[in-house]
Amino acid sequence: MFSSNYTNRLFGRTRGRSKKKINLNNYYETVDKYKFKKFNEKIEYILDVGTGYGETSIFLAKQFQNKVVISCEKYIDGNINLLKNIEKNNINNILLHNGNVYNVLEISNKKYLSLVWIFFPDPWPKNRHSKRRLVTSDFLIKLHKILRENSEIYIATDSTIYVRFILNSIYKCKDYFNWVNQSEINLSIKDYFDIETKYYKKAINSLRKPSLFILRKL
């Protein structure tokens, strides 16, 4: 059971701007079929944080069919798209958490995660909103506690402001993680994965080059 008494609030929209009408009762009934409730000690998990329209969760589920992907996203329109693709592709190794990722982190003190993806988190570019950014040193340390040995975190962003913020967070966590691709000149996502999400395409169309950071647990 998740506690609603958490101190780490996440910001951002739960619905798109299209104003498309949806039946919320049907939505929550469908979500409940795939809802993540608790960890199972016999299973290795992948945490996909801020999945947007679900492309990354589908990709990970197909790449790692022997593991369970926890798709963590509160954006309803994106979750609807993900659920449609789960059923369309007959995928059976995705569980959905349509809420705060801190809920997932706080229900266990054991090491269940073998991989974490955080692709295009909201950069909150204005200085007054910087405290809303997800990727902080505190967040990375929380992940560290439930990561299996030598597990990795992949973080992608197309925001130069967020790149600097992430670099500072990585430096503060240098005793917890090894920055695997630090010495590489090119940090592009496409050097590692053949995946193009909606936000990746948006970045490319806007002539912004997405960067990828790979951290391995020490």
Please outline what is shown here.
The protein has 218 residues and is an alpha/beta fold. It has 7 helices and 7 strands. It has one domain: Vaccinia Virus protein VP39 (Rossmann fold, 3-Layer(aba) Sandwich), CATH 3.40.50.150.
Sum up the overall morphology in one term: globular
Structural class: alpha/beta
CATH domain class: Alpha Beta
- Give unreliable regions as ranges: 2-6
CATH-wise, what's the superfamily?
Answer: Vaccinia Virus protein VP39
Q: What's the end-to-end separation, in Å? A: 30 Å
Order of helices and strands: HEHEHEHEHEHEHE
CATH architectural group:
3-Layer(aba) Sandwich
**Overall residue-averaged pLDDT value:** 88
Total count of helical runs of at least 4 residues: 7
**What percentage of the residues does DSSP assign to strands (E)?**
15-25%
Q: How much helical structure, as a percent, in the residues? A: 25-40%
Q: Total domains, how many?
A: 1
- What is the topology, as strand order, of the major beta sheet? 3-2-1-4-5-7-6
List the helices and strands and how they pair.
Blueprint: H1 24-33, E1 45-49, H2 55-63, E2 68-72, H3 76-88, E3 94-97, H4 101-106, E4 113-119, H5 137-145, E5 147-157, H6 160-172, E6 177-179, H7 198-205, E7 211-217
Parallel strand pairs: 1-2, 1-4, 2-3, 4-5
Antiparallel strand pairs: 5-7, 6-7
